[in-house]
Write a structure and sequence with these properties.
With 432 residues, the protein is α+β, with helices and mostly antiparallel strands. The protein has helices at residues 2-36, 84-88, 284-291, 295-299, 308-311, 343-351, 371-378; strands at residues 43-54, 67-76, 93-102, 111-122, 131-142, 161-175, 179-191, 202-214, 231-245, 255-268, 272-283, 313-325, 328-339, 353-356, 362-365, 379-388, 398-409, 412-430. The strands form 3 sheets. Strands 1-2-3-4-5-6-7-8 form an 8-stranded antiparallel β-barrel. Strands 9-10-11-12-13-16-17-18 form an 8-stranded antiparallel β-barrel. Strand 4 (111-122) and strand 5 (131-142) form a beta hairpin. It starts with a helix and ends with a strand.
């Protein structure tokens, strides 16, 4: 028990440190490079007001009024032609968002304080001028959580520190020399990554009105200053990780998930990374449930006791895609679970429910192993952010990274993970 408490504190501290470090490094990457590239990179800031609707997370979810958000966004335009990723991605904006959210019920849902790196891309530039897509991924502090006695109907958020994600489309309404007035529509999400239950997550839709204010006039983009040849490079990568999750509401103590993976593939134009590999995971919650002869082990899977460690593991294959931006990598993996035997118990515990009969007895109803279970058991996914020790702009042969990811069974959170990895590049090939 003491070991578990120490491990929990260490992982929680590392996760908070990682989120803060990523944001600080992102800021350094934005503002530090501007000092040396003042002719090509110009800074901006965007005060933004959003109004919207907090969507119901569960049955009998607390009633909400209009959701209100205030965000301040800082960043740079990245007009630097020496950065291949900037030219390949048509000079996206990068920055940091600092935000405050009132979900429309201060007593039961409360407020969120958000810190989030983002990227913004021009889309359909040839046909629609002034249309942009912004995607952000970071963390939030939530001041109000689920409580079985005082706040039982808010099953959206159960922890103070949570993952946050936003995706918005913006359109420039009108502009002056240094200011663009913009209207936007989008989606916001907050959840803890299955580190404490219940965790239905807070989802919102919102409209935005903002002003993109430049610190100086934007330079003309000289696309012919530097042209990069098309090329590809083979890579090999491995990583070790440690994550945390809970098993169910009845087993709601965080325990570790240990991970290992290897993958290989191609890095296209030093910007787009695609590949595939295999992963291995060991769930401490699964192992303990088997060792303690949990009810479903005893009644349905007694053979699990013959090899608790083996039946608490999971391995599979995955495809990976990653966008490389200086020191940062934005990664999405889609996997196929080849072996995850304990998920039958996991599903039945989490999809079931309980009620009291007329005699006051508690009746447990298990989740059904239906077609949807088969899909969830088979498909895994992984989304996260990496920080590379050496900039990817120079295509280093050896590189190390630290990363934070949210792992899921299809679209449902499985565990939050911190990892350390290594990348080796070989065989640079120029295309004719």
């Amino acid at each position: 028990m003491r070991y578990q408490l120490i491990t929990d504190c260490i992982i929680k501290a590392l996760f908070k440190f990682y989120l803060l470090s990523i944001c600080l490094l992102f800021c350094q990457n934005i503002f530090g490079q501007n000092e040396t590239k003042s002719d090509t990179n110009s800074l901006f800031f965007i005060p933004e007001i959003l109004i919207g609707k907090t969507l119901e997370a569960n049955t009998d979810f607390p009633k909400t009024t209009l959701q209100k958000n205030i965000f301040i966004n800082f960043g740079t335009y990245n007009f630097d032609n020496s950065k291949e990723w900037a030219q390949r991605l048509n000079y996206p904006k990068t920055g940091i968002s600092i935000g405050f959210t009132d979900f429309g019920n201060s007593e039961k849902i409360g407020f969120a304080y958000t810190l989030m790196p983002f990227m913004e891309f021009s889309i359909f530039k040839e046909k629609i001028s002034g249309l942009n897509l912004q995607i952000g991924f970071g963390g939030s502090y939530m001041d109000t959580q689920y409580d079985v006695e005082t706040n039982p109907f808010n099953k959206a958020i159960t922890s103070k520190i949570n993952w946050s994600f936003r995706s918005f489309i913006y359109y420039d309404l009108f502009k002056s020399r240094k200011t663009k007035w913009r209207f936007g529509l989008g989606y916001l999400h907050h959840s803890n990554g299955h580190t404490k239950l219940p965790n239905q997550g807070l989802n919102s839709i919102a409209a935005s009105f903002s002003a993109n204010i430049d610190t100086k006039l934007q330079p003309e983009i000289e696309t012919k200053t530097k042209q990069f040849k098309s090329k590809s490079q083979t890579y090999f990568s491995t990583r070790f990780g440690i994550g945390q999750n809970v098993l169910s509401e009845n087993f709601n103590t965080k325990k570790e998930v240990y991970t290992f993976s290897m993958n290989t593939g191609k890095i296209i134009n030093n910007t787009f990374k695609i590949g595939g590999g295999f992963y291995y995971r060991y769930y401490k919650h699964y192992y303990d449930y088997i060792k303690n002869n949990g009810a479903l082990v005893e009644s349905q899977f007694p053979h699990f006791k013959d090899n608790p460690y083996g039946y608490a593991t999971n391995f599979g294959l995955f495809a990976t895609t990653e966008l490389l931006v200086d020191h940062f990598g934005f990664e999405f993996d889609l996997g196929l679970n080849i072996y995850k035997p304990f998920y039958k118990i996991d599903w039945q515990l989490n999809q079931g429910y309980s009620y009291e009969n007329i005699n006051g007895e508690t009746i447990e109803v298990l989740g059904e192993l239906n077609w949807y279970y088969e899909i969830k058991r088979t498909v895994s996914a992984r989304l996260g952010l990496k920080y590379y020790f050496w900039t990817t702009n120079k295509a280093p042969k050896h590189n190390l990274f630290i990363a934070a990811h949210l792992n899921s069974n299809l679209g449902q959170a499985d565990f939050t993970e911190l990892s350390l990895g290594y990348v080796y590049r070989v065989n640079m090939k120029l295309k004719k």
